[in-house]
Design goal:
The protein is α+β, with helices and mostly antiparallel strands. The chain folds into two domains: about 40 residues, no CATH class; about 270 residues, Alpha-Beta Complex (Sulfite Oxidase, Chain A, domain 2), CATH 3.90.420. The structure holds the ligand Nc1nc2c(c(=O)[nH]1)N[C@H]1C(S)=C(S)[C@@H](COP(=O)(O)O)O[C@H]1N2 and molybdenum atom. Molybdenum atom binds next to loops.
Length: about 325
Amino acid sequence: MLIHITPRSACRSSEITTETAYLSRRHFMAGTGLLLAGAAFPSLATETASRYEGVTPAPVPAWLAPKLAKTQWRTTEVSGEAITPFRDASQYNNFYEFGPEKRDPATHAHQLPTEPWSLIIDGEVAKPGRYALEDLFSPFTLQERIYRMRCVEAWSMVIPWLGFPLAELLKRVEPTSSAHYVGFETLNDPEHMPGIRSRFALINWPYVEGLRLDEAMHPLTLLAVGMYGRVLPNQNGAPLRLVVPWKYGFKSIKSIVRISLLSTQPRTTWQSMAPQEYGFYANVNPDVSHPRWSQAQERRLPNGVFSSNVRPTLVFNGYADEVASLYKGMDLKKDY
Ligand SMILES: Nc1nc2c(c(=O)[nH]1)N[C@H]1C(S)=C(S)[C@@H](COP(=O)(O)O)O[C@H]1N2
Ligand SMILES: [Mo]
């Protein structure tokens, strides 16, 4: 998502094929009902091993291990859309704190210390504080959520996240009646984040993001602490990151150190860098082109010379049934 360079990942017209049969969009059945039913996962060990495909996952931290045992698992497919191999999801990343290239996060992020980690919750909230991660998470049961992830650069993946709804955390800290937005902030650690040290970085660190309170409270909005049945790799935003599946990937901020309840709309990193290209809402929308490329299609990873894997982009990334009502009466071409 370098703002002055057309990303290499943007679809070339030669890659575009017509997708004749798109499978059911209603993969997220009956809201969260299916997830909460929490069917036991038949063989987590074998399943996880095959997902990792020879890549050694990081060890599971002490605070996560007991939670994994109680995780509510669901099936391994999203309506016939294959889960992206762990290899791709953990080695083709955007995390500018570690550098601008897709391989940079996987190369450098392992240096980042993620234990201990604490999260500041402040602003318009009855119970502000600095919370140790393990204390903060102790009440929550992890769920597996298999979501499409659509980058604004027009590539996408399908990732099985492990986490819990952000709403559960927000309810516990009790937003006041003046809280209308939620702001998020990533760790700013130049010592361990070479992208921050770089003289070429255009970003005003720390990376910041935001949601309207109703978006933050939506049951699809997840705080993820793991993926593919294990701990989050650092390059994917350990120890905790946001996942907002109906919005472009840049909203899903990684390695969060602060969550602020706010009365007014916060500044966000990409919007402040290039407001004509990246909006606050950033809802996935095939009908609103990026000024430099179309958003009508996307390249589903992994792809290759013989399988371009180009597919049509779905409005709200396929989650319209769940989230379209949040934007009733809004002009999504104006509030992009
Ligand atoms: N702190 C931080 N969060 C970030 C980014 C970033 O550069 N820094 N990149 C975003 C972008 S553009 C995308 S597409 C997703 C990528 O998430 P993934 O690497 O886990 O697939 O992370 C988002 N979160
Ligand atoms: Mo992105």
